[in-house]
Design goal:
Elements lengths: L1 H14 L7 E6 L5 E2 L6 E7 L2 H22 L11 E19 L7 E16 L5 E10 L9 E15 L2 E9 L3 H5 L30 E10 L3 E8 L20 E9 L17 E14 L12 E14 L2 E14 L6 E16 L2 E15 L5 E17 L4 E12 L13 E13 L1
Antiparallel strand pairs: 1-2, 1-3, 4-5, 4-19, 5-6, 6-7, 7-8, 8-9, 9-10, 10-11, 11-12, 12-13, 13-14, 14-15, 15-16, 16-17, 17-18, 18-19
């Protein structure tokens, strides 16, 4: 009898059910009589459970399990050869008001909502370090000439860790060495403005950016406590363009690009992953590209306007929990292959900073200065853009996923030609922005 009662109790425990009417029985060894209460000479036999209660509980549990299994049928099974798949997103939504003004004429102001960036990203990890990454980039800004949003494959590369000592490699549409470094170590407000060497070089945004953030090729990335480097070879035109584009010409030449950073405080292994409100770091970098037979996106096939683009820069940044300060200088030359065409020269400098007066709040500022010239084969130089840009604003970190930014920009260009039919005249532009950043 004791074995039966204990077996029933074990079955009930395994089923996960709890019974309020469990009964403990006792027996008198001399008389064999059974009791429900303890007493002198009585030995505990075990616990007794009503068989009907056990049966009803098992029926209820079976019904619940069946309902759960039925509910799971509506979900799709995901299978992958990867060990882990990691999804994430970065989104920049904004309201922008632009008021451009020329010396001799006025143009209409514009105000509108923007989807400045909409990154959707997946990483398929083969182990703890190696993975394949795909990032889709969608953009729709008020300055766009089309009503459609543009979508690009921003990144699509294989990352292999420690292919050399302290060195990993990206292969595919990979990071170019400079921009990602500056955005994750010195200028943290890509949602309101690009870094200096990526943005357009005229006030009306008719110039070309020197470089963008990704391209087809490979990037070797080395991290040590006091030195980090990136060395890459790419097509050279960036992920927006390609050698097969209809308005470009093919070439066997590629672009060599680099970054060399000294980490004065010995925390170079954490470069790009610093916590601004906790870490202190001081970095000095040189960077640049040498791109042979670069393709001009604005010309037609066969016009022989390929050019060698080369630029070099130096950059320094210091951060501690209370503030950040960063500065850079760069010089560029586009040496056109066609003998009778003009070369383009650019040089510029920039300084930006942050003050963090209290938790979650940041006051930001930046000043850019750059100049663009054309040079004839005879050596005659003409200034085509002499531009300054001032950025100021305040940011509030709502939580680890959401940030709000309010900022203004003032852009002034003393040399830009506003239209082909008009004389040279100064260009001024005031921009006011409200931005929501979302990361998950």
């Amino acid at each position: 009898m004791k074995k039966v009662a204990l077996s029933a109790l074990a079955a009930a425990m395994m089923s996960g059910a709890v019974y309020a009417d469990t009964l403990t029985l006792y027996t008198d060894a001399k008389t064999g009589q059974v009791y429900t209460t303890p007493g002198e000479g009585r030995t505990e036999m075990g616990d007794f459970i009503d068989a009907k209660s056990v049966d009803m509980a098992n029926r209820e549990q079976s019904s619940s399990l069946s309902e759960y299994q039925d509910s799971m049928k509506k979900y799709v099974n995901v299978k992958s050869k990867a060990k882990t798949i990691e999804f994430s997103g970065t989104h920049y939504f904004g309201l922008t008001s632009v008021a451009p003004k020329y010396t001799n004429a006025n143009t209409a102001d514009s105000t509108g909502f923007e989807l400045r960036r909409n990154y959707l990203q997946a990483k398929a990890y083969f182990n703890d370090k190696d993975y394949f990454r795909v990032t889709m980039d969608t953009t729709k800004e008020i300055a766009s000439t089309t009503s459609n949003a543009f979508m690009y494959v921003k990144y699509a590369y294989l990352y292999l860790d420690k292919v050399l000592p302290y060195t990993g490699v990206e292969i595919g549409i990979a990071h170019r060495p400079w921009i990602d470094y500056e955005e994750h170590n010195a200028w943290f407000f890509r949602s309101i403005n690009k870094v200096n060497v990526e943005q357009k070089t005229t006030a009306t945004e008719s110039g070309s950016d020197l470089i963008n953030s990704a391209d087809l090729g490979f990037n070797l990335q080395t991290k040590t406590p006091y030195i980090s480097t990136e060395l890459g070879m790419f097509n050279g035109e960036g992920y927006h363009a390609d050698k097969a584009a209809a308005n470009q010409e093919n070439s066997k030449d590629l672009s060599f690009e680099w970054r060399l950073t000294g980490h004065l405080l010995g925390n170079g292994e954490h470069v790009g992953k610093y916590k601004l409100d906790k870490d202190t770091y001081a970095n000095i970098s040189t960077f640049g590209i040498i791109s042979k037979n670069h393709k001009d996106d604005n010309v037609t096939v066969g016009d022989h306007k390929e050019y060698d683009r080369s630029f070099y820069g130096i950059h320094a940044v210091y951060n501690q929990p209370e503030f950040l300060i960063a500065a850079q200088y760069y010089a560029d030359k586009d040496d056109v292959k066609y003998a009778s065409a003009n070369d383009t020269l650019r040089k510029g400098w920039s300084i930006n900073g942050e003050i963090r007066p209290m938790e979650h709040w940041t006051i930001l500022g930046r000043y850019d200065k750059y100049k663009q010239e054309t040079e004839t084969p005879a050596g005659v130089k003409t200034t085509t853009s002499d531009m300054t840009q001032t950025i100021y604003g305040v940011a509030y970190e709502y939580n680890k996923n959401v940030k709000f930014i309010a900022n203004g920009k003032h852009i002034s260009d003393s040399k830009e030609v506003a239209a082909a039919s008009e004389i040279s005249k100064a260009v001024n532009k005031n921009v006011y922005m409200l931005t929501t950043e979302v990361e998950w």
